[in-house]
Amino acid sequence: MRPSSTILMCALYILPYSCSKGTQRASDPSRSKWDAKFSAADGIRETKVRDDAMKTVAKNAAAAGSHAVVIRALDNIRDMRGQDQASRDCAVTLATNGHVEVARQIANKIRETRMRDETLKLIAQTK
User: What tens digit of pLDDT does each residue of 5-16 get?
Assistant: First the structure.
């Protein structure tokens, strides 16, 4: 076999594999939608408006079951009380939709003890 034909054979083997991998990543529209929404909220400069947008993104992502975006959005809320309340809302929504472990992890980040305990209780009571 000549060297040029060896290169051609390798290219024919590798090219389809690498193209299919790229297509898989690009074909997840829900992920790019949530990333775009997070980026839009992240671009807001005024703190209160930004926090409100992050809360909205987190709550909507929780309803859709997009765990990674929920956590990223909650972690980017600067107002601690607002972050705790949004964490509670998201944790309960996730638990109700069957994502109990992620809900528990989010609830454990709530700083206010009574709210954290009540949230964990609600998570434990979900069916």
Answer: 444 344 434 444
